[in-house]
User: What shape does this take?
Amino acid sequence: MLNFQLSIIKDYPKPGINFIDINPLLQNPAQFTAVIDAFCTAIKNSSADLTKTAIIAPEARGFLFATPVAHALHLPLILIRKQGKIPNHPYTFHITNEYTSYNMEVDSDLLDNFSQFIYIDDILATGQTLASVRQALKTKNKEIVLAIHLTDVADLKKMRDENPALAGLPLEIIL
Assistant: This one.
């Protein structure tokens, strides 16, 4: 695990939430490169069959990490977008997380090309976004075989561990 501090903004976007700001990492090319390399190493060391796997990432900060990883590993990348931003055959599903509740969508045709996915995002807090995506993929007989996050909120680990929608899912935390 890399040792790099991200900044915390207290009470943002609402009271009681401590927002993890990734901007300091993005401003340091050496650290960002090390993080992308760590994502790639975690994927290479996983049991995922990369010949059947695509990377899937939610809007928007997940894109920042998933894109260079997909490029480096020569893996397809499928984007999860907010409703109304997928022009071809959108598959819509609902997300509820610690901030809000909304609909997301993914191109259904692109999902059909793969049976398994590596989920990449920035912060693992309650795990509700990941759980919602996992459930949505399960309804299409698809599987997340590995979920990798830049960092997590350690104080919420017990909540994640008790979430049946996350049971048995391999999780990796980079920082």
In short: Residues 7-173 form a domain with the Rossmann fold fold (CATH 3.40.50.2020).
